[in-house]
Write the structure tokens for this entry.
Amino acid sequence: MSISKDTLFELDNFASPKIVSETDSWVHNIMDVLLLEKGTFSDTPEMGVNLKSINYLTAEEMVTFLQNEIKEQCDSYLSDIPLNDILISLKEQNNGDVSVIITLGFNTRYGKVNRSVFVDIRDEIIDYIVDKFDKT
């Protein structure tokens, strides 16, 4: 059973370890796996997605690849996370870059909770922001 709060390797405004909710902790764990390159850990060589690699896929391939990889990685390595919905959408920016919006749906003891992650991939740099608002 997962704990209800978790700490990150970040500091808050008071120089204390940043504490996040259980749902946000799950999102951070999933993002860690998405950013991880396969083969990083020798004991689990298939763990990781390497999000940078999707830059070379078509839009349709990108959506299918991410949905399949997130499900497969969570089933294999993050089975404690009660992930039940994965929705991938793409948004083309003015400069031609594509941002990926990953909406993750979780079944919690309080009901269904969604979190959206906005991922911007350009020039081998990945930025992401987690939407903190529940969309139930």
About this structure: The longest helix spans residues 59-77. Helices lie at 22-35, 59-77. The mean pLDDT is 82.
